[in-house]
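Duplicate of earlier report; Histidine kinase input re-posted below.
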Amino acid sequence: MRAASNATILVIDDNPTVGTALEILFSLHDLRTLCATSPEEGLALLRDEAVDLVIQDMNFTADTTSGEEGQALFREIRALRPDLPVILMTAWTHLESAVDLVRAGAADYLAKPWDDRKLLAAVANLLELGQATRALGERARSERRQRHALEAKYDLRGLVWADPAMERVLSLACQVARSDVPVLITGPNGAGKEKIAEIVQANSLVREGPFVTLNCGALPSELIEAELFGAEAGAYTGAGKAREGKFEAADGGTLFLDEIGNLPPAGQMKLLRVLETGRFARLGSNREKQVKVRVISATNADLSGMIRAGSFREDLYYRLNVIEIALPPLAERPRDILPLAARFLPPGRSLGDDAASALLRHPWPGNVRELKNVMQRAALLAAGERIGAGDLGLPPPANPAGTIAGNGDAEPDREVIEQALARAGGVVAQAAAELGLSRQALYRRMERLGIARP
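Output:
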């Protein structure tokens, strides 16, 4: 028997010999058994003891065969412990009542006299499932505690997040925020690199100072140096008057350089000098200025490959990359998708289950930026308050998750569902999307297989 030892099983049956027989059987497998001969005694034990599984009879009064007592007891057990697995022991005459209770949430039923092997197999499966469910629940509670601790301790600038991958990013960002070393944020376009830079600034020693941004990929190479370091009048064609650069504007605060891989070679050399000395001169001037600026840079490029190709300075790379924060794409932090989608909807709008499943199946090559655009468009085009999958305008998945190639009608079995729930951290909507099912369809499948809701 594969069940964990030291689990506790409560047997509720008016026939004491049933309890004795099961107690002997389970003791051979290191299982503790509590016995009660009435519903009242059983419910009292359930309130006082840590019970992992219940085996209950359907009738308790002499000459009673309706099964109503068993139904009433089952309802009271569900009220006390909604997720506790219950096995019904019934005579064949009570089979219909037992089947009805299984539909209502009972884990299984067995006919008297029972087969020891079948009973032990059912008990083992249910105890293992209970262990997995408790582990999922504890993991979810631990993640919630960690999330609340981060939110209480740090200024996260209103960031919406739920995925453990994002928690690791935020923990590192907040940990390094109070130092003044340069930080390099890597990750794909649209993933939220600037938001992470804002969080580093908000929790730094210079949080009261300016937060200045420059997208190095949005300007022609000949103007980037002027943007960074400023320029005197006449320093270049069109420079009719002197202008302040980003380093001057960020003095006493933080400068965020996005798409740092687009910085031209001359700008790279000057940036390296500023990082080393804190000094620079405006274009067209020999007079140096001294600044104290925390530099945070970001890129979606392979800077190591650019170094090998000779288009990015290796010494600058090591100056910028004292601490690297790697931001995963949205597809690798799936628990962030639905909370972010809800944030991007206007008040009064909500997601239908089919829309939620579609969002979780989509690969999001454009990351958070794409999700925001999809939700804003859906809110404009949806006829009602509830957003449906058809309102999203997403392409259908090439091969929906959870189906077997060439057999799209195949339903996932118990093991597949349990693995999907484990990967989803117990989030049924996410597991359903992975399996290509609606949330209701997954709940129905879980009920048929006796899988407890997380």
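The longest helix spans residues 116-153.

Merging into the original ticket.
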